[in-house]
Amino acid sequence: MSINSFGHLFRLTTWGESHGPAIGCVVDGCPPGLELDDTWVQRFLDLRRPGTSKNVSPRQEPDRVQILSGVYEGRTTGTPIAMTIENVDARSADYPIDAPYRPGHADFAYDAKYGLRDPRGGGRASARETAMRVAGGAVARLVIPEVEIASAVVEIGGDADESRWEAILDEARAAGDSLGAIVECIATGVPSGWGAPVYAKLDAKLAGACMGINAAKGVEIGDGFGAARLKGSENADAMRSDGRFESNHAGGISGGISTGQAIVVRVAFKPTSSIRVPVPSIDASGREMDAVTKGRHDPCVGIRGGPVVEAMVALVLADQKLLHRGQCG
Amino acid sequence: MSINSFGHLFRLTTWGESHGPAIGCVVDGCPPGLELDDTWVQRFLDLRRPGTSKNVSPRQEPDRVQILSGVYEGRTTGTPIAMTIENVDARSADYPIDAPYRPGHADFAYDAKYGLRDPRGGGRASARETAMRVAGGAVARLVIPEVEIASAVVEIGGDADESRWEAILDEARAAGDSLGAIVECIATGVPSGWGAPVYAKLDAKLAGACMGINAAKGVEIGDGFGAARLKGSENADAMRSDGRFESNHAGGISGGISTGQAIVVRVAFKPTSSIRVPVPSIDASGREMDAVTKGRHDPCVGIRGGPVVEAMVALVLADQKLLHRGQCG
Amino acid sequence: MSINSFGHLFRLTTWGESHGPAIGCVVDGCPPGLELDDTWVQRFLDLRRPGTSKNVSPRQEPDRVQILSGVYEGRTTGTPIAMTIENVDARSADYPIDAPYRPGHADFAYDAKYGLRDPRGGGRASARETAMRVAGGAVARLVIPEVEIASAVVEIGGDADESRWEAILDEARAAGDSLGAIVECIATGVPSGWGAPVYAKLDAKLAGACMGINAAKGVEIGDGFGAARLKGSENADAMRSDGRFESNHAGGISGGISTGQAIVVRVAFKPTSSIRVPVPSIDASGREMDAVTKGRHDPCVGIRGGPVVEAMVALVLADQKLLHRGQCG
Amino acid sequence: MSINSFGHLFRLTTWGESHGPAIGCVVDGCPPGLELDDTWVQRFLDLRRPGTSKNVSPRQEPDRVQILSGVYEGRTTGTPIAMTIENVDARSADYPIDAPYRPGHADFAYDAKYGLRDPRGGGRASARETAMRVAGGAVARLVIPEVEIASAVVEIGGDADESRWEAILDEARAAGDSLGAIVECIATGVPSGWGAPVYAKLDAKLAGACMGINAAKGVEIGDGFGAARLKGSENADAMRSDGRFESNHAGGISGGISTGQAIVVRVAFKPTSSIRVPVPSIDASGREMDAVTKGRHDPCVGIRGGPVVEAMVALVLADQKLLHRGQCG
Questions:
Q1: Stretch among B45-49, D185-189, D224-228, D264-268 having the lowest mean pLDDT
Q2: Cα nearest neighbour of B116 on chain C
């Protein structure tokens, strides 16, 4: 089982609460001999870090990663790579214990599952956990140097026109409200043959990985839901003798296995659940009260979703590369 | 690893090619003492069976399941339940070995991965494999008697108006073309607390399960991609003191854990890849030729997707129930 | 979890009761392109088959294996290989339901765990299940052609002198009693570097594999318990510049990783639990009565242990080879 | 896969090199609501700690454990429990990079596997890693309060007479040599029904767990190798109507499932490989030279094996309890 672990041969395990002393992860199964230092990982963490603009959470976390094991003289040794980030700006007072369940947040479901929870900042449900996914993804990228992974926000609040985003974000922030977003991630350079049929399909692994990101509510590969609206003759990606395809409706995956085309994943992020607009809710004793979140939160959590989607895609691809090499290498 | 297995405590392993002597599965981890016989499983297989209408493949398979182990005097014993279905109508001649890669199908990617493949009927990539998912799902339902799972096609060829479906299907069939579809599956009765945070989120497991179904290209939970177009205040599911929610934008899952509301999953199926409309392609030696599929195929594979989506949802929920009982029971 | 599965990348799942219609297995993760047919597997099954001498169970099972999937034109395709053997000589009458728990057998513990069991012939606890391990092991050998695996009984009833075994076996059989045995298995040709440190040590995997064989009560690697009686200077395997070791106290494994020397495993098998000598016991309702087993059983189960030990060693090595190639290849 | 992880529902992952900044672990799957603080874990670490007598390594490590996550107000929350211990007395100078491979140690096999290694103190192969097993085992004990686990050294240098141990240890130490030992661990209070048939047998899990401890070369359950020298009539554990057994040759496990009797495991530890007696060896370039280890090492590593064996037994039992509850609860 893998409650807090992800992957098989290349395996990430994360730990830590948003408001504990630190968060961290262990990357197990990384091949030996790869060049790795803190700087490489930090570069990706900095892209995800909060406090960098008015549209993301004002929480100030330097998020300095420290590699504690698995690297010797600048190279991976094949042994587990432990990384930690200290939590330096954890204001627990923002999270009183008698607060109502925040609708859309994990509070209620956690209490239902565990009978108790760490109320400070969402505990493991905090988006802060995703920092360690980004750290793990940075290591994963070293395993797949042939692959280039890039992502972009392609829609905010239902609007695909980038020029209007600043205005609608300003409006939502002013209203204490939040907006959803759609992130698209493209991985080029993946050779044909990664993934596996049936229950380890590459697209299934990507879907599970991306739906497991906080606030994700939908995942599609290639044309995705759009493909359900095409005819078979429109959706077919014709092949030419030079090995190229004439289109990429499939998003680079057929029958669960990569085709050599660009892998295209889109993830729908719901609007941030923590908003200042009051929402009717209850507290742990069932008393009705409005939930009004005063903590520091992003008006559009999807904006910061890109680096996390990239990290999950990198983790999946690194794992699949090793698995393919193991079975068919 | 789990190329051909699905689940942890409740685990399905399937085997068999479309055109071999039989297909089969092993269900491992089923709790003891549950009433089970062939009839129960057959009931669900009959719902998925081809040859039942003009809109699904005319292949005639009686699909009689036989339980070979794990049941004694009508009850499960806790040991592995093996089931098989003989392949009685496998016409290999429909699949010549020098055929071009069928665009959108797994042919090319399989060759790229394995260097060889069983060309008869798609091998493991055949939708026939999903019969064993349905068989496994039938057993899974016994583990979660408190849950009701139902599904419906909600869109065909981009059209949500059911009254027009027959006409557009007739048209596509006549043209040798195919249509995509969207299937919605709803599971009611799931108590709050199933699932787990971070990498074993219930929605992540459902997304992985459903994206792993043949021809699936998109998965959403609750409002899904629609949630990305709502404001936080619109998307919030208010809670009342009687423990009820006033809406279900979340689709029954918060923070990866069930809330007690109905779980809502939607799956986008691409149009059947095997069509009579010629599509430019190549054969294994790289020679250009049009792919024209003459085998027996569904004009809209999504129509038969419902029972498979239900099965995958049942498999996920049975597994999560046992896991929850293990960790928190 | 893996109640009825063994291995990671190369994975065996078995099913079937001793007295059901058949037993079977699924081998998942076998690399493509390996030559495989029924004959190869049958060869190993024949070595294990009962009814071949007076010292093994007189049960007459032809044990004809049938490969149902995963092979096309004589070669593995990379997809799951299903195999079955029909149970043709299952005399359930030998196992009355009101029988006492057979001491040393799994009867009591099964009832305690599952609340019910299939009383016919021990169900999954029957040594018959090991036929499928042998079948899986036969496929595993194809993955590791560089390795030669051989085994021998080295002790029966505490006696290492082979010339006396026939006499003590005759004596035990005549008395309705049984004898234990020790089997030694040697794998040569394993290159250095297979296995992994910490929790996936090659010796740990071998120990788990062999202790999981029916009736096994002890496992040792290299000098094993004898090493606990040596000084460090006596136990050290000196190395020479030609890459050879001057001794092999370690049994071919250091720090959980193969050294390139022969891998040496010894397994202690207890005497067959099913004996004609009466042993005080109880039935399921707690009533005291003597257990006297009349079914067909081996006077020394260890004699047939060799092919099963070899199979488990082959399964472990095939899996470790693929894992090593995946991580370090 | 689980190179650095152990267990399924209750899962320990460890990281860290002997001479890096710290070692640590993550315990995943611990049920919520259990009382836990640093003091509890420290108590078990102190029993294992080096530097406490002349017969164990003089390395001075305070080994102060710090819990970094998964505990809130003194109780486990069900989320991952991260623990670390700083390495404060790591003298790398003891481990020159041009040293010969230490015979019996993991040096050579590591180089063969990974192509490079951290030469300081054995890296992951160092017995220091076992501190985190003890920490994990301390948490595991909380999951199984009904079970009492105790261990004792029962043999040193082949001698079972405790009164002679000090003398033979003094002698070995003076000679720069080392001695092997046998540790026996007994777990009482385990109810009948834990474990599972076939590949998840309780004894198989214990054997894998214990053979994975550094320097372990043999494992036996109950009478173990001794059972191979008994007759079936001698080895049978008669049962009485009060549910008690008249003997415990089986060591508390039948058919892979606990019987309710005391579980008895014995582990053979080879003599410490690092000795001052010169042993012919080679360095990484193949040059012949004597290996003479000057670092700080235990003259009898088995003496400190007891707490580690107990920890592994606790980890196995906690996992099996949760698994049993999941499948049969």
A1: B45-49
A2: C77
Amino acid at C163: S
At C10, list the tokens.
Answer: 């190369």
pLDDT tens digits, one per residue of C190-202: 999 999 989 999 9
Confidence of residue B59 (pLDDT cuts 50, 70, 90): low
**If you count them, how many residues does chain A have?**
329
**Section C80-94 average pLDDT:** 79
Counts of helices then strands in chain B (DSSP H, E): 7, 15
Residues of C in contact with B87 (CB under 8 A): none
| Rg of chain D in Å (alpha carbons) | 21
Phi, psi of C310 (to 5 degrees): -55, -40
In this prediction the pTM is 0.96
Q: Does A15 contact D72 at a Cβ distance shorter than 8 Å?
A: no
- Evaluate the CA torsion angle D150, D155, D156, D157 in order and state its sign: negative
Cβ D296 vs Cβ D94: under 8 Å: yes
Is A54 annotated among the ligand-binding residues?
yes
pLDDT at position B91 is 56
Q: Do C218 and D229 touch (CB under 8 A)?
A: no
- Lowest-pLDDT range of A175-179, B115-119, D14-18: B115-119
Beta bridge partners of D264: D186
The larger pLDDT score, comparing residue B294 to residue C142, is at C142
D9 near B CB under 8 A: yes
Query: CB A197 to CB C326 under 8 A?
Result: no
Q: What is the CATH topology of the domain spanning B5-328?
A: Chorismate synthase, AroC fold (3.60.150)
- pLDDT band of residue A211 (cuts 50, 70, 90) is very high
Q: What are phi and psi of D202, to 5 degrees?
A: -60, -40
Percent composition of chain A: helix, strand, coil (DSSP 3-state, to 5)? 35, 25, 45
Overall average pLDDT of the B160-184 stretch: 96
In B, residues 137-156, which contact A (CB 8 Å cutoff)? 155
In this complex, is the C-beta atom of D111 within 8 Å of any C-beta atom belonging to chain A? no
Give the residue from B304, B299, B302 showing the smallest Cα distance to B174: B299
| Domain range summary for chain A, segments of one domain joined by + | 5-328
Q: Is the pLDDT of residue B73 over 90?
A: yes
Question: pLDDT tens-digit profile of D19-51?
Answer: 889 999 999 999 999 999 999 999 999 987 655
Q: Are A28 and D4 in contact (CB under 8 A)?
A: yes
pLDDT of residue B53: 63
Do B137 and B44 form a contact (C-beta atoms < 8 A)? yes
**From CA C49, how far away is CA C88, in angstroms rounded?**
13
Query: Which residue among B157, B231, B259 places its CB closest to the CB of A177?
Result: B231
- The label of the residue with tokens 């391990």 reads C133
Instruction: Flag whether A272 is marked binding.
Output: yes
- What are the counts of helices (DSSP H) followed by strands (DSSP E) for chain A? 7, 15
Q: What are residue C253's phi and psi, to 5 degrees?
A: -140, 125
Measure the N-to-C terminal CA separation of chain C; round to a whole number of Å. Answer: 27
Q: What interhelical angle do D305-328 and B305-328 show, nearest 10?
A: 130
Contact D79 A17 (CB under 8 A): yes
Q: With contact defined as beta carbons under 8 Å apart, do D325 and D203 qualify?
A: no
C69 to B22: CB separation less than 8 angstroms, yes or no: yes
Quick one: closest CA in D to B29, which residue?
A: D327
- The C-alpha angle B180, B183, B188, rounded to 5 degrees, equals 175
DSSP of D189-205: -PPTT-B-SGGG-HHHH
What is the number of H-type helices and E-type strands within chain D?
7, 15
Element (H, E) at C208: helix C202-211
* A288 DSSP β-pair partners: A282
Structure tokens at B311: 């099965």
